[in-house]
């Protein structure tokens, strides 16, 4: 029997903290190359570096990664590669931002001081130790679909809320002093670069973070040895992934962009493309009517065999 053919689309999740002096000069040729190579996704540029996820053919992704590695400070870029059956993005966007991951703490510099990197193979022992506090730095809707056993969920809607949460909970978390070890994790590692730098600036010395994030752990650690529970939310059309970075079981609510599982789909508040239990009370009847029209246009386009790329609502 012939070996199973790999899925056709290469997906690259990447980030690099480095000093970019002129993001505008970087943006145009980078976006032009992505479009020429048929690569889609989102890349963010800021004075602190680059972040994003892109997808395309193996050759297209290789060409874009080679271009990025030639940028200042990016030679050691180590993207997390996975595969998808279909293109997980509708368009290509290269945007200039204040931060490549928004924390809202302008004095935090991951290039100056960050926590200790922990390889996936050593992560289980660290988080199982009784003197380790484990914190999930991701957003509440991400944590809801999966996290590490015993991890603290800050229940923060955005990463910008993390500093205020830590400052409010510091005495409870650390007992009024400094815990021997604080271990933090996120999807691909970028949020933990800033989170550990933030905790170091707050006077916490023994800070650790999962190298390459959850994605690296799920690819590296066998499922039978795993301390991960559930699925991992990713910011593309795969929605969630599991061990081996295979596509998970969740879909995406097109109204609020949150993940929805089997229980959500069974709820009377779930209408495909219009609402889910998490966002039904957050939207007006007029908004839901707009989503319903967008869904109708999407189905018409699919029936004609054409892509429909409408406005994204949050």
From TrEMBL:
Pfam families: Rhodanese, UPF0176_N. It comes from the Bacteria. One of its GO terms (molecular function) is oxidoreductase activity, acting on paired donors, with incorporation or reduction of molecular oxygen. It catalyses: uridine(34) in tRNA + AH2 + O2 = 5-hydroxyuridine(34) in tRNA + A + H2O. Keywords: Oxidoreductase, tRNA processing. InterPro entries: Rhodanese-like_dom, Rhodanese-like_dom_sf, TrhO, TRHO_N. Its EC number is 1.14.-.-. SMART domains: RHOD. SUPFAM superfamilies: Rhodanese/Cell cycle control phosphatase. PANTHER family: RHODANESE-LIKE DOMAIN-CONTAINING PROTEIN 7-RELATED (PTHR43268:SF3), THIOSULFATE SULFURTRANSFERASE/RHODANESE-LIKE DOMAIN-CONTAINING PROTEIN 2 (PTHR43268). Catalyzes oxygen-dependent 5-hydroxyuridine (ho5U) modification at position 34 in tRNAs. This is tRNA uridine(34) hydroxylase. It comes from Sphingomonas lycopersici. The gene is trhO.
């Amino acid at each position: 029997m012939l070996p199973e053919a790999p899925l056709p689309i290469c997906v690259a999740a990447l980030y690099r903290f480095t000093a970019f002096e002129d993001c505008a000069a970087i943006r145009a040729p980078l976006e032009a190359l992505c479009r020429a190579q048929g690569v889609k996704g989102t890349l963010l540029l800021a004075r602190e570096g680059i972040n994003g996820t892109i997808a395309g053919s193996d050759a297209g992704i290789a060409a874009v990664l080679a271009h990025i590695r030639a940028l200042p400070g990016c030679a050691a870029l180590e993207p997390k590669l996975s595969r998808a059956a279909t293109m997980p993005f509708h368009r290509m966007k290269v945007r200039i931002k204040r931060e490549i991951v928004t924390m809202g703490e302008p004095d935090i510099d991951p290039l100056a001081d960050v926590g200790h990197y922990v390889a996936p193979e050593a992560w289980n022992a660290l988080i199982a130790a009784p003197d380790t506090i484990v914190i999930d730095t991701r957003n509440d809707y991400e944590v809801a679909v999966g996290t590490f056993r015993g991890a603290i969920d800050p229940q923060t809607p955005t990463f910008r809320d993390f500093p205020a949460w830590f400052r409010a909970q510091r005495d409870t978390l650390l007992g009024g002093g400094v815990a021997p070890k604080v271990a933090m994790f996120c999807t691909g590692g970028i949020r933990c670069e800033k989170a550990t730098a933030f905790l170091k600036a707050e006077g916490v010395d023994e800070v650790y973070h999962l190298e390459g994030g959850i994605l690296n752990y799920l690819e590296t650690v066998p499922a039978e040895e795993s301390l991960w529970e559930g699925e991992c939310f990713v910011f593309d059309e795969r929605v969630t992934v599991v061990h081996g970075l295979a596509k998970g079981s969740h879909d995406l609510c097109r109204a609020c962009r949150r993940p929805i599982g089997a229980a959500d789909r069974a709820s009377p508040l779930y209408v495909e493309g219009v609402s889910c239990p998490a966002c039904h009370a957050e939207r007006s009847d007029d908004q839901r009517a707009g989503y319903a029209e967008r869904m109708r246009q999407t189905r018409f386009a699919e029936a004609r065999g054409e892509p429909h790329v409408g406005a994204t609502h949050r």
